[in-house]
Amino acid sequence: MLKAIQVGVGGFGLSWFELLQSYQQAEVAAIVDPLETNVQAALKRANRNVLSFDRLAKAIEKVEADFVLIVTPPTTHADLAKTAIKAKLHVMMEKPLTDTLEEGKALLAFTNAHAQKVMVSQNYRYHPQIQTIKALLDQQVIGKVEYGDYYFNRATRFGGWRDEYADILLQDMAIHHFDILRFLLEKEAVEVTAASFRPSWSWFKGMPNAHVDILFEDEVRISYTGRWAGKGRKTPWNGELRLVGEKGAIELVDDRVYMYKGEADEPTEIQLQTSLLPDRLLSLDAFVAAIRHDTVPPTSIEDNVKSLELTWAAIEAAKSGKKWTC
Question: Are 258 and 228 contained in the same domain?
Fold first, then answer.
């Protein structure tokens, strides 16, 4: 069984720690968090002896481990990952890869000089709805995808660092959906135009709402609308998606997948794929397999920096009001 050092056990980190208590392929040997309240909350949920530290360097000195799991604010990702890699530990981290594109590219260059695996947990790829759509596309049931629409609408009050981000929707939430699009289409973005704004009632200091038009390779066009200080009918976290090809369309609505043949008005609902593990553990499973078999994990830093590039293309396009080339 592989051993992990988990950095960050507050908030979402605590839910990661709880998930790992039932995971059979790896165990948490130590946790790292500067806040004692976070540490104590995690230790109360541990089903085995777990050591605790306030800094990653201390944990590395005292604990034998195979990898580091980073669940901290994005501003800390690059330094924590470098500390782990220098100690010859593999790294898996929550998205986004880094706080800025420049940091992401610098971290990629750093990792290229080392043998350790570095992966970002883009867990939405492993949602059963997304896996089901990918299987349909792989079967060419609608032919070549030519265009699509993506819509996301929620009102989520996190508090903490997310409330301070300048481009909170695009940087922290839309990156999930952009990564889904890259995964489903197996294409990269070429051009991006975007606009973002902050409604008067928003609790976010930055821009929680945006519209993004993305031109992917092979002239595939996607129109994306995201609202994180939204009103009216809310979407699931996956959002709602329509992909259209010459043979029909696939739609994701309320976390249910539908297929339309040709120009039919009535769809067929598609049974969702199932898995024995939740999406985040499927992501971790892929990472563990990559370590054991010395393969490239599916959302490796080399792959994930492209989702980060698309995200920052949207941010820059929104700020400048100009078309951004990827």
Answer: yes
Rounded to whole angstroms, the Cα distance separating 2 from 22 reads 14
Dist CA 115 CA 257 (whole Å): 40
Distances (CA, A) of 269 to 112, 242, 252, 255, 257: 44, 14, 10, 11, 6
**How far, in whole angstroms, is CA 1 from its chain's centroid?**
26
- In this structure, are 101 and 138 located in the same domain? no
CATH number at residue 110: 3.40.50.720
Beta bridge partners of 94: 121
The rounded distance, in Å, linking the Cα atoms of 191 and 213 is 8
pLDDT of residue 194: 98
Q: Is 162 helix (H, G, I), strand (E, B) or coil?
A: helix
Instruction: Tell which of 75, 90, 116 closes a domain.
Output: 116
Output the pLDDT for position 165: 87
Same domain (yes/no): 249, 142: yes
Strand 240-245 vs strand 145-153: parallel, antiparallel, or unpaired? antiparallel
pLDDT < 50 stretches in the chain: none
Q: Are strands 248-253 and 240-245 parallel, antiparallel or unpaired?
A: antiparallel
Same domain, yes or no, for 64 and 130? no
In a domain, 303, yes or no: no
Residue 254 CB burial class (10 angstroms; 0-12, 13-18, ≥19): exposed
E-strand ranges in the chain read: 2-7, 26-32, 51-53, 67-70, 90-94, 118-121, 145-153, 189-197, 209-216, 220-227, 240-245, 248-253, 256-261, 268-270, 324-325
The answer for 189, left when phi > 0, alpha when psi is -120 to 50, beta otherwise, is beta
Same-domain pairing of 112 and 134: no
DSSP code at position 170: I
CA-CA-CA-CA torsion for 316, 78, 294, 62, nearest 10 degrees? -160
User: What's the pLDDT score for residue 282?
Assistant: 95
Q: Which domain holds residue 56?
A: 2-116
The number of distinct structural domains making up the chain is: 2
